[in-house]
Amino acid sequence: MSFSKVNSSAATLTKNRTESSVVPTSGMCVTCVDGCIGMCEIGKSAFRGHEVIYPQPFGVITTAGEKQYPVDYSHFNIMGSCVGAHGIEADSEKAIFPAVNLEVRFGRDKGIKFRLPWIIPGIGSTNVAKNNWEGIAVGAATAGIGLTIGENVVGMDPKARFEKGKAVDTDDLKRRVTLYKESQIDGYGAIVVQANVEDTKLGVQEYALKELGVQCVELKWGQGAKDIGGEVKIKELKRAQLLHERGYIVLPNPTDPVVIKAFEKGAFKEFERHSRVGMVTEEGFAKRVEELRKAGARYVFLKTGAYRPADLALALKFASKYKIDLLTVDGAGGGTGMSPWRMMNEWGVPPVELHSLLYRYAKMLSDKGEYLPTLAVAGGFTFEDQIFKGLALGAPFVKLVGMARGPICSAMVGKTIGRSIQDNQLPVYVERFGGSKDEIFVSAAELRHKLGDDRFEKMPPGAIGMYTYFERLAQGLRQLMAGSRKFGIDYMTRNDLASLTMEAAEISGIPFIMDVDKAEAEKILSK
Q1: 3-state secondary structure 438-460
Q2: Is the pLDDT of residue 56 over 90?
Q3: Is residue 206 part of a domain?
Q4: Full residue range of the structural domain in which residue 243 is found
Q5: Cβ atoms within 10 A of the Cβ of 419, count?
Q6: 8-state DSSP, 373
Q7: Which of 170, 190, 188 minimizes the C-alpha distance to 130?
Q8: Which pick of 139, 166, 194, 325 has the fewest CB atoms within 10 Å?
Q9: Mean of all residue pLDDT scores within the chain
Q10: What is the mean pLDDT of residues 300-306?
Q11: Model confidence, pTM
Q12: Residue 284 pLDDT more than 80?
C-alpha cells in the first residue's frame, strides 16, 4: 500500500495523462509517451523547474499535505458513558450539553483566558493571510480565542521604518494588532507576535511590546509543514530588491544585472524570498527569553514543528526550565502558506506519533515534579471530534488545539458570501438560506444581540463566517464532552479515547477498544 501520491496533485496543478493507470512507486504514467506536452510534475518541471516545488497558484490558497499516514486521529474513537458526571452535579436537569464549560485559563499566572480551547497559530506574511486578516482578526477576537501573527510580517511591509536596523514603525503589524485588540470582549483571547531569525534581527517583538501594547510573544523553532525557513513569492523587482536589502535570502539575486535583464524579458515572473533556519542552543534560548521578559513580555510562548523526537524533548525541557507559558507542537503535513510540496508530504513526525511522544515526555517531567507549560497540539485539526481527541490524547497537559486552515477557510467563505450579497450575485447553494447577512449566517442574531446593531453592521463578513464556524465547533464539542460526562476541559482524560487498531494503541498508549474497561467490566460481572 502506498501512502503517498507522487507526480500529480491539484497542489502543483499537475496530472497524469493515463490517470487510471499509474505506477505506484514513481507516480509516472505506465506508458510515458514521446510527444506528451508534460502535464505531470516531471513534465512540468522540465520547463518550469524549481517553480514546481511549491503549491500553486500562490497567494490565493492554503495548502496541506495529502499523504495518508499509517495512523491518524480517525484511528481512535471517543468513549461515552451513561453513568455520572464530572464537573457538574449528576442530575439530568443540570448535566445538559450547553452547560459544558469550554473556557481555558493558562500562563504562569493563569492570566490568559480563552472562551474556547483552541488557538490560531502563526499566520504570517503570505498574501492569503494578509488579504483575509480583517475577518480572521475580528472573528478570533470576538470568539475570545488566541491569534498569532506569524513570521516576516514586518520585514515584508514596504512601509515599515527602521533605525539602525531595528523596527521603529510599521503599517501591517500595527494594523493586524489593532484590528484584533479593538474587537476583544471582556479580556478574552490574546494577540501573539511570533518571530523567526529575521524578525529577531529586526527587533520586531521589542517594537510590538513597546509600541503596540502586545503582552504575548512567541519564539518559533518551526512548524509541521517544513523544516526550513518561510518562503513567499515576489512578483515585483523593486520589492524583491527591498527584501534583499533587509537581509532576506531572495532567489534569484534581484541585484544581479543578468537576473534583472532576464526578469524584464519575462524569462521568469517571480522571485522567491526565503527565511533562514534557526540554530537552537540552550544559551541562546535562555538569553532570548530573558531579553523578551526585560522588554516587557508578560507571556513567552514557544512553537516547534515536526522535528525528530530528540528535538521535541529539547523543546519541552527548555520550555520547562525557562518557564515558558505555552508550548505548541505542530505535527507533519500541516501548513497555511507556500511550503515545498514534497517536503510537506514526506518530512517530519506525523501528528498522532508526535503528540503521543509529547504526552510521554511531558509525563516524564511531571512525574519528576518539574514545571510544565500549558501544551497545545496542532496538525490538521478542523472539527470538534478531532479537537476532542487531541485534547484527550494529551490530557492532562494539553489544553488547546492549534488550527489555521479551517479558520482561514471559514473567513474566506464568509468574505466571499459578503461580496456576493453586495453584488446581488448569490449562488443558488447559498441563496436558498436568504439574501442578507441576517438570513444566511445562522449566528447573526446572536452577534447582533452580543455586539449591538452598529458594531454588527461594521463586522466584516469574513469575521462572521469564522465566528459561525467556531459556534458550530463549540456546540459539537460540548455535545461530545457531555456524552463522555466531562463538563469542563480539565476533566478530560486519556480514558475518554479507545484505539481502533493495535498499531494506534502501541503508538499512543491508548488501550485497544477490546481492552478498554476490561478489569472493571469483569469486576461488575463477577459480583
Answers
A1: HHHCCCHHHHHHHHCHHHHHHCC
A2: no
A3: no
A4: 236-270
A5: 13
A6: -
A7: 170
A8: 166
A9: 95
A10: 97
A11: 0.95
A12: yes
